[in-house]
Amino acid sequence: MAAIRSALTTFLGIQHPLVLAPMGGASGGHLAAAVSNAGGLGLVGASYGDPDWMVQQLSLMQDLNKPWGVGLVMFTVAKRFELLHLALEFGPQVVALSFGDARPFIEPIHQANAKVIVQVHDVDQALYALDAGADALIVQGAEAGGHSLRRSSMPLFPAVRDAVGESVILIGTGGIADGRGMAAAMALGMDGVMMGTRFLACDEALPSERVKNRLLHAVASDTVRTRIFDDVRGISWPAEYSGRAIANQFSESWVGNEQAFSLALDELRPQYERALAADDVGTKAIWAGEVADLIKDVQPARSIVEATLKGYADTVAKLGRTL
After folding, report:
1. 224-261: b (≥16 Cβ within 10 Å) or e
2. Alpha-carbon gap, residue 198 to 226, rounded angstroms
């Protein structure tokens, strides 16, 4: 596949403007390495920062001779700043930051000769992140799996581009699972795209076959936005955020019944922990986006990258024939 060039590929030194979302519990070292080796940028999803998990997964990246990075959730890592330094010990070329104030993170990351990419969800966040010193931005629409605000990708992408100007490198994410979505994002002003849910259904992703099979049988209308999966784990997300996951028996019992849910939390938390240990997809969260309709099979990460790039080229060629 011929390389697809953009400001993002030049900035990162990669072949293709395609980034793996740092999905916590899913984007481990094997998946991140596979995406980087396929010419994109693999990000290990260190997320909330389990140090043992980080050491295990980041160790897999040390012999990789391609650019790679790590993703961290700022509002939790800010309370345990040693986790940032742990991540930097493994020499990532990129640190992707999300959900919080990037200012305390910028200097130590730059001192480690890594680039800072900050995820944003509206125009104000984009301007703030740039003022804080971000090198590039991930612009996330609400179609995404996991946590986000409420603005959808199609109007958000050009709004951020208009606000920040042409020189800022932007990566679009949320509602993108193939080359058609990639082409649309690039047309709306993005320099590249990040995909998460599509890579959840790949051989190298960490979740079980049971989880992947549930995703294959899901459609967008099966997803639900809620905070209950965070509350039952005791994770205090900022009030403005909720997360998109595939609905299951647990969410059907408690979404819309939050008062009773709050009263039952002490009982529910150990039950949920047991469900996690048992890989009970009827209870545990499977974070997935509205692109669930588009995912029909589990493939190697390289095949997903190649299919996305071919779909992008085919889409651009088709549009060109309409002119």
Report:
1. bebbbbbbbeeeebeeebbbbbbebebbeebbeeeeeb
2. 21
Confidence check: pLDDT of 323 > 90: no
Count of Cβ atoms closer than 10 Å to residue 279 Cβ: 13
Backbone angles phi, psi at 161, to 5 degrees: -60, -45
Q: Are 80 and 49 in contact (CB under 8 A)?
A: yes
- Distance (Å, whole) CA 87 – CA 83: 6
Three-state SS at 167: coil
List, in sequence order, every residue forming a beta bridge with 202; answer none if it has no partner.
299
User: How many Å apart are CA 106 and CA 83, to the nearest integer?
Assistant: 14
Band of pLDDT at residue 3, cut at 50, 70 and 90: confident
Q: What is the mean pLDDT of residues 300-320?
A: 96
Distance in angstroms (rounded) separating the CA atoms of residues 224 and 3:
37
Structure tokens at 196: 């998460």
Give the separation between CA 271 and CA 249, rounded to whole angstroms: 13
Assessment of whether the complete model's pTM goes beyond 0.70: yes
